Each structure stands twice: as C-alpha cells, then as structure tokens.
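Trying the structure run again after the queue cleared.
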Amino acid sequence: MKIKILAAKDLPPPNSVLKFRIKNTTNWRVGYTDNDKGDFVQEVGGITYSYSWNQIDEYYLTEPVLP
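Done. Tokens:
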C-alpha cells in the first residue's frame, strides 16, 4: 500500500525497508529509513544518499521492519 507523506505522523517506523519517491519525480528508489533522524537512505554504487522526510512524496514498505 502506498502511503503519501503529508506530515510527520505518516512516516514509517525506523529501520524500515521500503521504496520511496522524491517529490516532483517519477522514479521509485529502494532504500531504508535510519533509526536516528528518520531520514530515507538510498545506497547506489557505494554512495549513500540521505533524504529528509519532507523531500519524499510517498513510499511503500517492501519488507518487515528490520530488528
């Protein structure tokens, strides 16, 4: 189920594995949420990209929350 982020209450739990879409884009990115700041993290070719939750338009969980 896709979840649109309108406010902080719509954020996934920390350490969630998910797909997310940055605002004003059409590409879905695979990543996870960190447990410190609640950022959305994507790792591509050894480079780590971190996005604040207010940069993300929507997401959906792909696996259960990591321990």
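The chain has a mean pLDDT of 90. Worth checking whether this holds up in the mutant runs.
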